[in-house]
Specification:
The complex is a heterodimer of chains A (325) and B (398).
Chain A lengths: L3 E14 L2 E14 L3 E5 L6 H7 L8 E12 L2 E4 L5 H7 L4 E4 L3 H4 L6 H11 L6 H14 L5 H4 L9 H13 L5 E5 L7 H18 L2 E6 L2 H7 L2 E6 L2 E7 H6 L4 H8 L39 H5 L5 E4 L2 E3 L5
Parallel strand pairs in A: 3-8, 3-9, 6-7, 7-8
Antiparallel strand pairs in A: 1-2, 1-4, 4-5, 9-10, 10-12, 11-12
Chain B lengths: L1 H31 L7 H20 L3 H4 L1 H15 L2 H23 L35 H37 L1 H16 L2 H22 L1 H10 L10 H31 L2 H8 L4 H37 L11 H9 L7 H28 L1 H18 L1
Helix pairs in contact in B: 2-4, 5-6, 5-14, 6-7, 6-10, 6-12, 7-10, 8-10, 10-12, 11-12, 12-13, 12-14, 13-14
The chains are: A alpha/beta (325), B mainly alpha (398).
Chain lengths: 325, 398
């Protein structure tokens, strides 16, 4: 587990909008180890997706990756993905690092059959010689993602499939090139609960089968508990706590993590009212000075308002960015 | 015996196939539960599609089976078109003029460069009915023949202008919309500059300046010369006048693309944000491929409608340019040119104005009517309402 595949250092992404510069993520650093499931957790707009997309430079204008390094380790050598040219990074996208997006409804092109779209992913990376050959392989891929009746389904168009089936197709596209890293960006959010478990199991299954490393982005603590090995909790564009999944759930240190866990209903205890974290996510154009969580933090003191807490190792492998630890 | 056996077998098989076919159709009817009243027009369009499908199936085997839904979609499109009388009129007019454009020069009773005035002086501006059914121009030429020849000129010019201008606009619009930022600003500001000039004036300027430069190109390129002569159905004698025709086409293409660049950019901007474009990027597709294979097919619908609507204006602008003396020169027949030449004899030789004028009117009207109803039909929501309206009517009757 000490074998790094990805090392993210001081990743900063800003969006230059008319309202001002949105500091979507600020100096985010973390490592991902081979074969693990790394979860990025946080509420909406805290920069989880931006972080994941920035890894392969998938940030669209007006966004820009301001600084940072993303080292990708392969066969003992490392490459800084952010320094690559557009043509070079295309080699990594899909082949080494693949994505599964949140909404299967819109992440498939409505004009092409699903088989074509799987086949296209193979064709770009020259795994097949023609789209036609890819269609045959697509049947096998659809079978591995447990698509019922794959011979028939390859010819179907996205609108002819259910949400769960479509998400299977996107997972199929994701794994089609046997990527080393699979980034699942809220893969179950758009699906109903019964299908969610199936899809999560499928991702687990694929991970086991192909030995991929999974970066899971979610706001669902239940999914985290089920899937993740290590967890990074993000708040307002920063990682506030990073630890293995047991430490996060048993001994959360950062007040935000504590609040997040309290907001999850426990089915075993009768509760009158579910606790919430007061306030909302701050504007990222003018983030609060010092610790970004200080306006909502019950423990906030003077130092929190003046000094930005750095991510420090408290225990073995347990990092926290808080003055009150 | 053996022969007979085989024959019976074949028959049985045929019957079975037919039965299966019938049963399948029956099921489909039940499934959709929608019955449409088919008028003569619908029967005719269905028949037309059937012929088309059989032709394609005979070339590519199994095409009919694979594209059942596409065929049904075509039939439904024609069905919806048949519900709008202006659309049908437009389609008929357009078909008629396209037909004239293709076969007109061969149907013409006289050649455009035959001047009867040299044989018989009385044909000079002879009124309709005297020598020719629609009269003659100042060279004594038959107006019917000229109009038929002019149909080809007009059709070829409008097609080439569309073929040159539209792809240019689409490519620039796609690039501007997809990349955004400075590229977008640059392309769109150039587009704005072109749009700022009145298109007719700009085209006049280009059409006046270009011919000298182009004539060199045409004279030195025999293949291009032959191709153009063949396209316009002209004699090789007219080679010297080709540069002016080509100049008009190029001038119009130059002023024609900005509109397309704008609508393409607009649609690209919305389509670019869709998740499937991002997923395409995430699997490592190149920008060019994403634009050509994923964005363009998704936005082509409105552009095609715009093309149909625009065909009329191309015809009109072309006639306008020739009316101003640019473009076709006699003896090349061109509707605008006929009006221009005829205007000198106007009140007397009214037929030289009225007939070509109405031809242009009907041609433009046809394209506009067709484009208008195509817009309704290609929009799924509007088409649905067209279909529903029909069904309600049917219910009321019962």
């Amino acid at each position: 587990m000490t074998d790094k595949v990805l090392e993210v250092k001081n990743l900063t992404v800003h969006f230059y909008t008319y309202a001002g510069v949105v500091k979507a993520i600020e100096r985010v650093s973390f490592d991902v180890y081979r074969g693990e499931t790394f979860a990025l957790v946080g509420e909406t707009g805290c920069g989880k997706s931006v972080t994941a997309r920035a890894l392969t430079q998938l940030i669209e204008s007006p966004g820009r990756i301001v600084e940072g390094e993303v080292y990708y380790y392969r066969n003992g050598k490392s490459v800084d993905l952010l320094k690559l040219e557009e043509e070079e990074i295309r080699e990594y996208r899909g082949k080494e690092i693949a994505y599964i997006f949140q909404d299967p409804q819109s992440s498939l092109d409505p004009l092409y059959s699903v088989g074509f779209q799987v086949s296209e992913a193979l064709y770009v990376h020259k795994k097949v010689k023609s789209i036609k050959e890819g269609m045959k392989k697509a049947i096998d891929i659809l079978r591995t993602v447990l698509m019922p009746d794959p011979e028939k389904r390859v010819g179907n168009y996205p609108h002819e499939l259910s949400g769960g089936m479509k998400q299977r197709v996107t997972i199929g596209i994701g794994i089609s090139n046997y990527p080393k890293i699979l980034i699942a960006d809220e893969p179950t959010t758009a699906l109903d609960v019964t299908v969610q478990a199936q899809i999560l199991n499928l991702i687990k299954e694929m991970k086991k089968k192909y030995g991929a490393t999974v970066i899971l982005i979610t706001h669902d603590m239940g999914v985290v508990a089920d899937m993740a090995d290590r967890v990074a909790v993000m708040y307002a564009g920063k990682i506030v706590e990073l630890a293995d999944v047991f430490s996060i759930f048993k001994e959360p240190i950062h007040p935000y993590t504590k609040g997040l866990l309290k907001a999850v209903p426990n089915p075993l205890i009768k509760i009158e009212r579910l606790e919430t974290i007061p306030g909302t996510v701050p504007s990222l154009i003018n983030p609060p000075s010092g610790c970004r969580f200080n306006p909502r933090c019950p423990l906030a003191s003077e130092i929190c308002r003046s000094k930005v807490p750095e991510l420090e190792e408290v225990k073995d492998g347990h990092f926290v960015a808080c003055h009150n630890r | 015996m053996k022969f007979g056996g085989v024959k019976i077998k074949g028959n049985v098989k045929g019957d079975l196939m037919q039965e299966i076919q019938e049963r399948r159709e029956g099921q489909e009817g039940q499934k959709t539960g929608e019955e449409y009243y088919r008028s003569i027009l619908d029967r005719f369009s269905d028949f037309f599609i059937e012929i088309l499908v059989s032709v394609i199936s005979s070339i590519r085997r199994g095409w009919r089976e694979k594209n059942r839904s596409r065929i049904a979609e075509w039939k439904l499109m024609f069905y919806a078109l048949n519900r709008s009388p202006p659309g049908v009129i437009g389609l008929l007019l357009v078909t008629f003029f396209v037909f004239l454009g293709i076969f007109g020069p061969y149907l013409a009773p006289y050649k455009y460069n035959y001047f009867p005035i040299f044989d018989n002086g009385d044909t000079y501006l002879s009124p309709p009915g005297q020598f020719f059914p629609l009269g003659a121009d100042h060279f004594g030429r038959d107006l019917v023949s000229l109009l038929l020849q002019g149909a080809r000129t007009s059709l070829v010019i409008s097609i080439i202008v569309i073929l040159l201008g539209v792809p240019l606009g689409i490519v620039l619009g796609l690039v501007a919309g997809y990349f955004g930022g400075k590229v977008d600003e640059l392309i769109m500001r150039i587009t704005d500059m072109f749009l700022a000039f009145p298109p007719l004036i700009l085209a006049i300027a280009f059409a006046a300046v270009l011919p000298e430069r182009i004539s060199y190109l045409i004279n030195n390129n025999l293949l291009l010369q032959q191709l153009l002569l063949w396209l316009f159905a002209l004699d090789s004698r007219e080679a010297g006048n080709l540069s002016r025709l080509l100049a008009v086409m190029i001038a119009m293409a130059i002023v024609w693309w900005p509109g397309y660049a704008r609508i393409t950019r607009g649609s690209t901007l919305t389509e670019r944000e869709s998740l499937y474009v991002e997923s395409a990027r995430a699997i490592g597709l190149s920008s060019a491929k994403i634009m050509a294979k994923h964005i363009l097919p998704n936005i082509i619908g409105p552009i095609l409608v715009y093309v149909t609507l625009d065909f009329g204006s191309v015809v009109l602008t072309e006639a306008g340019l020739s009316f101003l003396g640019l473009g076709a020169t006699p003896p090349i027949a061109d509707w605008g040119r006929i009006v221009y030449d005829g205007s000198q004899f106007f009140p007397k030789a009214w037929w030289l104005i009225i007939f070509p004028g109405s031809i242009v009117l009907f041609d433009v009207l046809g394209w506009n009517l067709l484009g208008d109803s195509l817009r309704d039909i290609l929009d799924p929501k509007l088409r649905r309402s067209i279909e529903f309206k029909v069904k309600r009517k049917k219910g009321e009757k019962k």
